[in-house]
Amino acid sequence: MSKSGKKLTQKLKKNLPVTGPQAPTLYELMQWYCLNTNTHGCRRIVVSKGRLRRWIWISLTLCAVAVIFWQCALLLMSYYSVSASITVTFQKLVYPAVTICNLNPYSYSKVKDRLAALEKETSQTLKNIYGFTEPLIRSKRDVGVNVENSTEDIFLKQIPLYRLESVKGSQLVVSDLKTKKRTRMSAKVIHRDAESVQDPGNMVGFKLCDPKNSSDCTIFTFSSGVNAIQEWYRLHYTNILAKISMEDKIAMGYKADELIVTCFFDGLSCDARNFTLFHHPLYGNCYTFNSAERGNLLVSSMGGAEYGLKVVLYIDEDEYNPYLSTAAGAKILVHDQDEYPFIEYLGTELETATETSIGMQLTESAKLSDPYSDCTMDGRDVSVENLYNKKYTLQICLNSCFQREMVRSCGCAHYDQPLPNGAKYCNYEEYPSWIYCYFKVYKQFVQEELGCQSACRESCSFKEWTLTRSLAKWPSLNSEEWMLRVLSWELGEKLNKNLTKNDLANLNIFYQDLNSRSISESPTYNIVTLLSNFGGQLGLWMSCSMICVLEIIEVFFIDSFWVVLRQRWRNWWENRKENQAEDTPEIPVPTMTGHDNPLCVDNPICLGEEDPPTFNSALQLPQSQDSHVPRTPPPKYNTLRIQSAFQLETIDSDEDVERL
Questions:
Q1: Pairing state of beta strands 93-94 and 171-176?
Q2: What domains sit in the chain, N to C, each tagged with a CATH number?
Q3: What Cα–Cα distance (Å) separates residue 542 from each residue in 40, 75, 530, 546?
Q4: Best-predicted range by mean pLDDT among 34-38, 169-173, 575-579?
Q5: Mean pLDDT of the region 207-234
Q6: pTM of the prediction?
Q7: Hey, is 660 helix, strand or coil?
Q8: Closest alpha carbon to 26 in 567, 570, 573
Q9: Which run of H or of E encompasses 480?
Q10: Which element (helix H / strand E) includes 500?
């Protein structure tokens, strides 16, 4: 192609309208897209004749787009949902761990010396309130207990007990249970077992104050004096146990051969050696059957009562602490070998003189983690440190979080839960305000102000045993005499009395059958199904494919962005040129003659104003390097050409341009 043909082609392309992604405006870009897209609704908006028909197609297209967004939102929500499936299998099942505790944590004969002063003040308080006198059987049992003859009530001084006379807001009228002296005080009132005060005259409570601020006091009230005395006793009891070493507490508790009288499992005899010691802070020495610490786990070969665990427990009700344990019997918990036995929350109680049969049904559950649920697989992604060194559970996390806040707020750890590293258990001598601080932290924990409930998450996998309990009178009237005689003879070396049926409890715990249920979750949609449903919705409502979606993304986002950017850049550049043209001042060119001419500086040929230059001297003047000698411009040949022929003829293609 000749040089003139190329110039003509460039000129024609410059004058032709620009379409497609290089369109100068958004309107032209959208018009080009609607004419060239495979989405029929958008094309009908442009090619339709008449305003009414065009608005109809606009409405239909917008409705189709809205339906697509609605259906896709439903698909996304369904993608994060799960469906549960239940599978029932029949196989030999591993027998779970069974933890057994006596409701009385320590033998009274072994712990009475440490609790003598506390029990003396408790008995005196009951006498002051209700005229209570100690039973004769207790008086005989307490013979030999060394109690210091002190007129000062240590425990009542630390936590005074009051009877409420009247309550008006924070103004109280109370009477001291020891001195009967009525006083008026201002304190907050917290009702432990009632929402409101019905009859203040029948309510008993104790007062707790912050040692650092004597005006910050709270009275905890109870609807019954029994509950008030028990709560008051437990606070002092916990304070005493916190100062006793673990070795001494184990020695004060029941031994395995004392608690377990007879044992059978799967038709075979067993004894105390098949149980593992587990010391619980509230129930003392507990014993776990089929613990993971013993190595190989036992398996149930058959279902039914004859193939489970059968034990007879010695309760020893005469050694019970009357203010701590108001019920007689035992407590058991069925749990996995890797789990911590929270027997105080989930345990099942056994009655004395009763045979308790418990049938078990195993259910294993497995949930999906993020993004389907907020559960955790092993607790490693939870910010709360596990203080129990056992498999993660929600209860372990909550207790560990509470203990951490207890140490942070009160400076010491509560006795009911494991001890964190570097912390000590709370007691009056080292931490005088720990009880008041404990109630404040516990209130915040219950009201979910500590953040424990939000930080702790449920475990994704767990085992659960559904228990079916039945009771029967044991031993029967005809077998009671010989059975108690035989058991008394077998335990004669350990006991110095004849057994009664109220000293024993019979437990039979077994699998009802060997069917185990497995509940597992699976995603309702996978990624393939989700994309297929997306494609179906797009094809149904907009007759477009994934390529059309990519085209929409390119035109409506990428190309539109560059069109707007080019428009703003062009406007900015034009405004900048106009501002520069307006701000440029006209600089007058001064006339330089004679010595004012810079070419004459240090030039002896330059003459002064009084000496006009001659022709020869003018030729000797130096010339400027940047100066150009003006020449005659060439003629403008373009004015001689005839351009009307190009304006009348339409050029259809580049070949015509090259031909011209």
A1: unpaired
A2: 3-80+527-569 (no CATH), 87-103+255-367+461-523 (2.60.470.10), 108-241 (2.40.50.140), 376-459 (1.10.287)
A3: 7, 17, 18, 11
A4: 575-579
A5: 81
A6: 0.70
A7: coil
A8: 567
A9: helix 480-490
A10: none
Q: Is the pLDDT of residue 326 over 90?
A: no
Binning pLDDT at 50, 70 and 90, where does residue 645 land?
Answer: very low
Q: Let me know: does 505 contact 351? Beta carbons within 8 Å.
A: yes
User: What are the DSSP calls for 99-161, one per residue?
Assistant: EEEESS-S-HHHHHHHHHHHHHHHHHHHHHHH-----HHHHHHTTT------SS-HHHHHS-E
- E strands, 246-371, where? 260-265, 268-269, 275-280, 284-289, 299-300, 309-314, 330-335, 348-350, 354-366
Average pLDDT, rounded, for the chain: 79
DSSP string, 342-404: -HHHH-EEE-TTEEEEEEEEEEEEE---TTT-S-BSSSTTSSS--SS-S---HHHHHHHHHHH
How many beta carbons lie within 10 A of that of residue 78, not counting itself? Answer: 14
Q: How many helices (H) and strands (E) does the chain have?
A: 21, 21
pLDDT of 28-79, one tens digit each?
777 777 777 767 667 667 777 778 877 887 888 788 888 878 888 887 777 7
Q: Could you tell me the maximum CA-CA distance found in the chain, to the nearest angstrom?
A: 161
Strand ranges (DSSP E) for 456-503? 461-473
Closest CA to 97 of 375, 356, 391: 391
Please give the C-alpha separations between residue 651 and each of 9, 12, 41, 645, in angstroms, as whole numbers.
10, 9, 34, 11
* pLDDT for 605: 47
Partners of residue 658 on adjacent β-strands: none
Task: Choose among 162, 153, 144, 158: nearest CA to 123.
Answer: 153
Answer whether 406's CB lies under 8 Å from 414's CB.
yes
Burial of 39 (0-12, 13-18, 19+ CB in 10 A): buried
Distance from C-alpha of 68 to C-alpha of 167, rounded to nearest angstrom? 65
Q: In what order do the strands lie in the sheet with 161-168?
A: 182-186, 171-176, 161-168, 204-210, 213-222, 188-191
The C-alpha atoms of residue 169 and residue 523 are separated, in whole angstroms, by 56
pLDDT in tens, 409-466: 999 999 999 999 989 999 888 898 898 899 889 989 999 999 999 999 999 998 999 9
The answer on pLDDT for 356 being more than 50 is yes
Decide which of 489 and 493 is more confident.
489
- pLDDT reading at 310 higher than 90: yes
Better-predicted residue by pLDDT, 400 or 626: 400
Distance, in Å, from the CA atom of 93 to the CA atom of 362, rounded to the nearest integer, reads 9
